[in-house]
Structures
1.
Amino acid sequence: MKCHRARLRNGKLVLILGLMASALILPATAMAGIEGGCTGSVVIDGKTYGPNNDTIDNPIVVPIEKDGVVALWEGEVPFDNRNHEGRLGMVIGPWTISVAEWGDANEANVTANSGSYSIDEFKSLFPVSESLIPRGVYELSGEHTADGGRCTGTVMVKLEGGGIIPIVAVVGAGVTFLTMLSAGFRRQS
Amino acid sequence: MKGHPVLGFISGLLFGLFLALALQQFGIMPLNTLSVIGFPIIGIILGLGMAAWAPFGNR
């Protein structure tokens, strides 16, 4: 009887975890690019990127190991841009780390702007030294809201470079996979 | 369970996290909700499933 109850309990646990996994997988098909009619581009290390850089195969490449690199950006909105505000963040799981924020009354209703963003400033967002910043691809999401409308967008960013973290990740995945298999050894009764 | 559920749970969780990190590092998948939360949950399911199935002999 006890054994039957334990099986039922284990079955429920697996079912609940399975439902949670399904619920997380479904929103993963979220749309990328920029919605709302806004346009923009950025020049990094001589290459121009835009809203089309929204896939893993075609990311915005950030040469994080070079010092003094500056991203030159420009953007335009197609609506009344008074009382605007916006933010740009790096997506890490369900969380977003703020990369930049802006906003003011903009009484002159300026709808286009340009500027520069230091990659060194971006590197300082990480609470670790430059060599320990995890390379690889990240999702960058942003939004801009004003009196006349709202734009949202997502692009992919690749932090270029090597480092020890890829090796640690592969070895860790291999070791924990083998350990997971060893959970399948029968206990001695 | 006939196997080792605690070992399966912990190793499955860590396997999911390392897998998410490895895929991100090699530019295959970003660290989105699916990889950071979904993979560890799938790992836990696999680990517990392994412990429940226990296809290997006594250790």
2.
Amino acid sequence: MDFLRPASWEEALAAKAEHPTAVPIAGGTDVMVEINFDHRRPEYLLDLNRIGDLTEWEVGGESVRLGASVPYTAIMESLRTELPGLALASHTVASPQIRNRGGVGGNLGTASPAGDAHPALLAAGAEVEAESVRGSRMIPIDAFYTGVKRNALAPDELIRAVHIRKADGPQQYSKVGTRNAMVIAVCAFGLALHPESRTVRTGIGSAAPTPVRAEAAEDFLNAALEEGGFWESGKIITPSVAKQFAELASGACNPIDDVRGTARYRRHAVGIMARRTLGWTWEQYRGTARTLEGAA
Amino acid sequence: MTQHTRVASTPAGTPTDVTQGSRTRGGIGESTLRPDGTLKVTGEFAYSSDMWHEDMLWGQILRSTVAHAEIVSIDTSEALAQAGVYAVLTYEDLPTEVRNYGLEIQDTPVLANGVVRHHGEPVALVAADHPETARRAAAKIKVEYRELPVVTDEASAVAEDAPLLHPGRDDHHVGHVPHPNIVHRQPIVRGDADAAAARADVVVSGEYTFGMQDQAFLGPESGLAVPAEDGGVDLYVATQWLHSDLRQIAPVLGLPEEKVRMTLSGVGGAFGGREDLSMQIHACLLALRTGKPVKIVYNRFESFFGHVHRHPAKLWYEHGATRDGKLTHMRCRIVLDGGAYASASPAVVGNASSLSVGPYVVDDVDIEAIALYTNNPPCGAMRGFGAVQACFAYEAQMDKLAAALDMDPVALRQLNAMEQGTLLPTGQPVDSPAPVAELLRRVKSRPLPPERQWETTEGADVRALPGGLSNTTHGEGVVRGVGYAVGIKNVGFSEGFDDYSTAKVRMEVVGGEPVATVHTAMAEVGQGGITVHAQIARTELGVTQVTINPADTQVGSAGSTSASRQTYVTGGAVRNSCELVRDKVLEIGRRRFGSYHPAWATAELLLEGGKVVTDGGEVLADLAEVLQDEVVEVEAEWRHRPTEAFDLRTGQGNGHVQYSFAAHRAVVEVDTELGLVKVIELACAQDVGKALNPLSVIGQIQGGTTQGLGVAVMEEIIVDPKTAKVRNPSFTDYLIPTILDTPTIPVDVLELADEHAPYGLRGIGEAPTLSSTPAVLAAIRNATGLELNRTPVRPEHLTGT
């Protein structure tokens, strides 16, 4: 195994172009596990840790440009206001040590359906900034996940940053695991209210071959909220609407049975999380609830 | 949160000789700090995996990828051809006719002999100059398997066409088992269960399932074997019982025991998982073959295959009671899955059957316990074995019975609680305090933690809710439940085993100060034994400075660090040897100074604070003056009272030496919609006889309680029922409690002395593991109203999905 250590982004792109099978490594929280378990023996490891640029972020007018290697800890500490859903998701990532190392770029690169960041990115709305020696492009998050642990990157491309829309309303994130910390998601659900566009977006983790949005649920809810004038009135969402939303979210799942949980449980739990996160965000939107960020 | 309670009235039989050395600091009863504590917390402790030797090779084990198969062929040529590889060994290369080992039954092949019987069985060994080279070479060994049908449960084990796991068995259990795929069977019949059942107003029964738990100790298996010039081998290894290892290793190597010199290296933890051999013989074989030091270190993945687990069990129980709540009878059948090799299965059967009634008075019983041979992973020793599985079931039964009688579950237990003098189902009287009702009273009388602790002025604090920071509920669906359980565990090796320990104690003057040295072969696996040995030596010999020599086989056996026995048995051996040393020191004193003071001849003399004093407190001489340049050294064996085997037909017999009792109250909060559980508090009351080191006692009780919590709500090795392959051999998918899953554990310590034991102490390590699990289950049942007859409970069980 060759260990490539580019000193700059340009060198990294050149190395990736020369060795398209090279596996980028930043925090190493996914890659090293795979190597240690002998699941993977890449020919080349491409170490991105010398590229300081990747651990920086910029808060713009519309979105946050989050460097691929910004650790989860920084998201929790510095971006709660702009990215509340992703900050909540970051809290659920493994242990403090892992959160100090791992970042969203790695989650996207691995593209595991169980990656904790994905539902929050799907719900908030995001674009992945991918670059190669051929140039740079923005991949919408909805088009990024292409299969189990597969993404839309070309072999010579690296993830430079992810551009996440700044929250224009409340966001929530829930994850089910069978212990209270340091656990891989059995399933997860992210929900963001977008009062400016009067839409609701969602994201589901670990309940389908890829992270997915519950699009039918979103469409139903968007229509119901519009028709009932909920955005203007801020009245409590009718329980039957919440119930139907939850059922449609369940229906968006295409889960499997595995050692972490049954398919039936995953469908069930996604429905519960959908109903609860809708309730929490809507309460926040109505302004009646005190801070319900969920994370202390 | 911690209370130490000394019972007000001293019960009969309390030893009166425990004040010895009370004026010497650091003696028994003090919470002296453990020498390994700071090192472990700061990461500086040297574990066995940290060892290094110049010119050392790395050993790698190739393990079977299937659970049951004939080995058609093994081709090692490619592995041998790889640069850096020094040796590849298979069954054919074993040096002597002794090719099996085992704790009690020698049924475990050192390397697979034409057949593999479980997933992960060792097939071949590689030694290479780099661990990665060894790993790659092992992957190049070609093994052709012809798969065989798998035996995975009782039905497939005793079916007419069942494959026999061990054809031609000749062990001492084969004569009394109903089928050769049953390792051991122990019935216990006492009174007349049928007649007693006729007197019952209420009868409840249930079938319970206990999952396979892993010890999940720190520091996966590892060791270093160094070939010696005399043709022998020096083995440095993390284990639980050096001499038991030695007895199994030496014959396979074809060496006399004195040529296999073992030294204990840094152990992370054990919990029973190091009682069987792992890499010991393999490393020695490679070292002797290559003439170079060989180190083997399992990673966590391999560790899941490299040691035995807790027996999963199916338990059927029936209890009857009169309307006023008095138990009439109990019938049970306990089926333990021992997996492919016997390991400790016979002893697990003995414990499960003899303790199947729990700490209750039941005169009429009909009991049967068996352990199976299957193609599942081998199971053996783990904290509380046999008693743990039974406690889970009989405590569920007690709650079921209380519900049927419309009685308070604690009151029902107290009404039937055993006490000193009660006969066990084996007919053996419990001849030391058995404060079962009192332990229950103590956990019950403790105030309950406040409700809805997650509510703050800032909204819900999710850390206090099921799911924690995963943010799954802000209180929705959350229901509280409270549950109780109590258990009984035997202490020490039972059923007629000659359970002894050896201690060598030396006393001399160094730099003008009297000092003591204690040398035993006791494996310090984290239980705090070496701390206690120093405390005992200070108390008995009146010295401050005590050196504990490393545990090795240059001193006699200390027995296993298991069965809650080491403080009792090796602690007893250290005390005994100290007493013999003291006698010799006083003899020297009498010789030197006897003529100067009549008290030398007439008074009871003690060693305290570096001096010889009378029981009246008068100082006779400094120890330094008494000893001068003489060295007093004693090595002696010490054993607890003998026990006897259980009758193979009736189960009668005085099989146990001591008991340990603990009770728990669990308070849980369950998110009933998502099926997630948070244990809020797990209060424990335990009788420890005498707390030699109160801080260590609390640590053991809290650790045992947490291990019991683990198997209540998350810990389980999942074995595919079709292929008998392990599906979750990693800490990613075998979950153990984190600190956020660990509740407040208030501990109430009773000290009712057992007059038969040194200082009146009781072995304490296992009892808290028993009652913790059923208490949590009872609390979840209380919260949800569900029957929940298996552990661990998964979200699926709580949500019907």
